[in-house]
Amino acid sequence: MAAPGENMRVNADRLWDSLMDMARIGPGVAGGNNRQTLTDADAEGRSLFRRWCEAAGMSVSVDRMGTMFATRPGTDPELLPVYIGSHLDTQPTGGKYDGVLGVLSGLEVIRSMNDLGIRTKHPVVVTNWTNEEGARFAPAMLASGVFAGAIDLDYAYSRKDPDGKTFGDELKRIGWVGDEEVGARKMHAYFEYHIEQGPILEAEEKQIGVVTHCQGLWWLEFTLTGREAHTGSTPMNMRVNAGLAMSRIIEMVQTVAIENQPGCVGGVGQVKFSPNSRNVLPGTVIFTVDIRSPDQKKLDGMRARIEAEAATICEALGVGCSVEAVGHFDPVTFDPTLVSAVRKAAEDLGYSHMNIISGAGHDACWAAKVAPATMIMCPCVGGLSHNEAEDISKDWASAGADVLFHAVIETAGIVE
Ligand code: HGY
Ligand code: MN
Ligand code: MN
């Protein structure tokens, strides 16, 4: 007996071809992608996505953060749409699948509904959120944060990249400032399909991650003030060494995360020395501490301890220390009804699956503030992501897209 909707599967080859076509835009240097938000490559990827959506019969609108919404009408225009979303922007040394898999799988669901002549009661909208990565402009999940009312639009527009360019100016430069008010549209439900970016699904040999929660995050930007001095002629006892203070803080963050196991992470990915000259002790050191946990108490406890111990470290070295939270969201519990729809879809399709907590942050975390939301995950090779060697199989990609297809149909209501 065929499983319910046995024929409702995506076209795996067409999905894979779209992923490879998008990967040709903003190529990296080692097989991945460098399609950072609001660059010309991002603009090119947006245009390609818009062409594909229009070719699939969807109408595309854009809001003031540049987020793209491609709509396939339902039979009842009064009903709120079911959204499928993720992001097309990448890290500077990103993979081909982080974010892109979710956006293009949403498109593939629409293409498959068209092929099968499926009509849904609720409209279905495929979304490309601007600046999910937060690599060029902090924080991450910027546009979805504004959409959820957690981040102010003017603050978002003011965010600067390492070259001092603002988000607002760059969005205007690439010609993607939309006229739609951010957050004006309402959602019946939101689904995000994403690679796991961790090792669990592959290690457990599961095809599908039924995502029940996402860990919360703090991005703490430290500015340490030392004294610029000659690295050769300045005696050790006369140094005000901001670089040394930074290294002790990074070591302390590692200790705090380890002591808070299980379920906590902490580290530093970006450091800026000034004047950044080999034979000058840094006058200023700016770096961002990234800490995460699914446990609210642990997350906030780590933040308090790190800020207190950083102040002590700096005081002992005579280094000035200031800290600003430049990114934050609390741990997220996804909508149980949608989580069940994902689990049922995996069961109907005969895909192995397990519950999982997302280690990485996603736009779904902000969508969950304003609508029922959940996620679907597929494995990735070695759990590697935010690395150009990020890799998945075509089978993994399409299995998750099949589950997305079924969960969306279940939620949007199929019209017989
Ligand atoms: O930081 C994150 O978790 C996401 O990749 N932007
Ligand atoms: Mn992502
Ligand atoms: Mn990412």
Break the fold down into its secondary structure elements and pairings.
Blueprint: H1 12-23, H2 40-55, E1 59-62, E2 68-72, E3 82-86, H3 100-116, E4 119-120, E5 124-128, H4 142-147, H5 153-158, H6 167-173, E6 189-195, H7 200-203, E7 208-214, E8 216-225, E9 229-230, H8 242-259, E10 265-274, E11 280-281, E12 284-293, H9 296-317, E13 320-329, E14 332-333, H10 336-349, E15 353-358, H11 363-370, E16 373-378, H12 394-412, E17 414-415
Parallel strand pairs: 3-5, 3-6, 6-16, 7-15
Antiparallel strand pairs: 1-2, 2-5, 4-17, 7-14, 7-16, 8-12, 8-13, 9-11, 10-12
Helix pairs in contact: 1-3, 1-12, 3-12, 8-9, 10-12
Residues 132-134, 140, 360-361 line the site of (2S)-amino(hydroxy)ethanoic acid.
Structure description:
By secondary structure, this protein is of the alpha+beta class. The protein has twelve helices and 17 strands. It has helices at residues 12-23, 40-55, 100-116, 142-147, 153-158, 167-173, 200-203, 242-259, 296-317, 336-349, 363-370, 394-412, and strands at residues 59-62, 68-72, 82-86, 119-120, 124-128, 189-195, 208-214, 216-225, 229-230, 265-274, 280-281, 284-293, 320-329, 332-333, 353-358, 373-378, 414-415. Strands 1, 2, 3, 5, 6, 7, 14, 15 and 16 form a nine-stranded mixed β-sheet that branches. It has a four-stranded antiparallel β-sheet with strand order 10-12-8-13, with helices on one face. It is globular, with a radius of gyration of 22 Å. (2S)-amino(hydroxy)ethanoic acid binds next to loops. One manganese (II) ion is lined by residues 91, 98, 133, 386.
